[in-house]
Predict the 3D structure of the following.
Amino acid sequence: MQKLHALLILFMLFWFKPVVNKISIDRISEALIFCKKNNMDTSIAVMVDMSIHSGKNTFFVYDFKQKKITIEGLCAHGVGGGSTPIKPVFSNKEGSYCTSLGKYKVKGRAYSNWGIHVHYKMYGLEKTNSNAFNRIVVLHSYSPVPGQEIYPQTLFGQSAGCPVLSDVTMKKVDTLLKNRKKPVLLWIYS
């Protein structure tokens, strides 16, 4: 009976991608490996899943040591390129007002005109987001973004390509990021 139970568990792990609080184990592992390889902070990573309905939490801070999500919230996507609340369009082009997919290095806290008046610089590390710094794509908040899920309603844009959080979520993120010695990984995927 124990062998059958063990085989069933192996079968399930092989056929179904394990998920830890909305992020796949594979993505968590890839993020940690990336952070180690690129001399980035290895205690946390920020994940933004643009495949999730915009009225649900799409922004997650994953703590590698605690092995769990410690912060989550809504995250607005860019309004450009024909983006809709249900289907965002992604682009790396300057002037597109679209969100760019890929891994970013988050480093550098500065004043923002929006939300809680804090933003973090984002440096695109892949071909899909290499123009982020030139496009002034930063992590910030915007007061109209709700502090909780609004599903089945949608969260429309409110961004020129930046990942934009509620003020409540951004305050938590700011507390977590402002004293980091190494850059933090922010990974936007769909």
Q: What stands out?
A: The two ends are 40 Å apart (CA to CA). The chain is about 20% helix and 25% strand. Helices lie at 2-15, 25-37, 167-177.
